[in-house]
Design brief:
alpha/beta, Rossmann fold, GMP Synthetase, Chain A, domain 3, 2 domains, 7-stranded mixed beta sheet, 3-stranded mixed beta sheet, globular, binds guanosine-5'-triphosphate, binds magnesium ion
Length: 293
């Protein structure tokens, strides 16, 4: 097997919100790179995850779920999808067969591209193969596919076969990144994402969609890292909800966020968390850009 040529390339992970895109990337990399929650629109950025073995390097681009954007933040999210779609050598179309709503927007987005598209049917732990295959045949009628893969990102089924199929489509070439790299974002990015993940997990309704997280400072110490971060809300009334009665809600948010950040950095963390109001930030192009989207 030593004469196997080295291959490398970019794979965009595209699909509807909640299809399991980020879970799939994390499963492939064997570590948590991209945050995942049961709520749709968890991912807002292009999150890079680098898979390497002796003969292969695949740079995965996790993306926000495809939606019709209603405000500026969502427009920026869809620009991210568009960029990944353009930049990648191939596309993984992550499809959740348990989703009862149509998937037309994704099909529309992928119909015009001239690169291999793999249909990755996820969550097969939750549906019979007959039902999944019925849904797949509808997609096959509308899109030219390089292959169909049935996987469970949660349980790991079908992943080695998917990696091998991607490899087959890549061109011979050297790795783009050192083989030990798993991603390319600065630590601050992961920290803000982990805090945002807790906002998604602990708050309901509009709150998760109205917040963003800004890491103001990160002081790394030998035994303790000190982080100062703010949660930015879209409306004044949301500030009180985040803080909660007697500060209970923000306290819980801080504790859970700190735990996940400590797991990431393998050190003790002191997290100073504040809430700030930026009236209608997510509707404002400049603010959306300034806040990293
Ligand atoms: N049963 C089951 N659940 C899954 C599987 N893959 C993902 N999930 C769940 O589906 C939900 C959404 O997963 P994410 O990975 O956050 O989905 P996403 O496509 O990245 O969603 P957005 O970032 O919002 O677009 C989470 O609750 C996951 O645990 C799977 O293979 N089986
Ligand atoms: Mg995601």
């Amino acid at each position: 097997m030593t004469d196997k040529p080295h291959k490398s390339g970019y794979a965009a992970i595209i699909g509807k919100p909640n299809a399991g895109k980020s879970t799939l990337m994390n499963r492939i990399l064997g570590t948590k790179i991209s945050i995942t929650t049961h709520k749709p629109q968890t991912t807002r950025h292009q999150v890079v995850g680098i898979y390497s073995d002796d003969h292969t390097q695949i740079i995965f681009l996790d993306t926000p779920g495809v939606i019709t954007p209603k405000y500026q933040l969502q427009k920026a999210m869809m620009n991210t999808v568009e960029r990944a779609r353009k930049d990648a050598d191939l596309v993984l179309f992550i499809f959740d067969p348990t989703d009862t709503h149509p998937t037309d927007e994704v099909i529309e987005l992928l119909r015009t591209i001239n690169k291999p598209i793999f249909l990755v049917v996820n969550k097969i732990d939750r549906i019979s193969s007959e039902k999944a295959e019925q849904k797949v045949s509808l997609i096959q009628n509308q899109l030219k596919l390089a292959g169909v893969h049935y996987v469970s990102a949660l349980q790991g089924d079908g992943i080695p076969e998917l990696i091998e199929a991607i490899r087959e489509k890549l061109m011979p070439g050297p790795p783009y990144y050192p083989k030990e790299d798993l991603s390319e974002h600065p630590l601050r990015f992961f920290v803000s994402e982990l805090i945002r993940e807790q906002v998604f997990l602990q708050f309901q309704d509009e709150i998760p969609y109205s917040c963003t997280v800004n890491v103001i400072s990160y002081e790394a110490g030998d035994e303790l890292d000190r982080i100062n971060a703010e949660i930015i809300v879209n409306r004044k009334s949301q500030k009180g909800m985040l803080i909660g009665k007697g500060g209970e809600a923000i306290k819980k948010l801080g504790i859970e966020s700190r735990k996940t950040i400590e797991e990431l950095v393998g050190k003790q963390v002191f997290l100073d968390l504040h809430v700030k109001v930026r009236e209608k930030w997510r509707e404002n192009e400049n603010w959306v850009r300034n806040l990293g989207y």
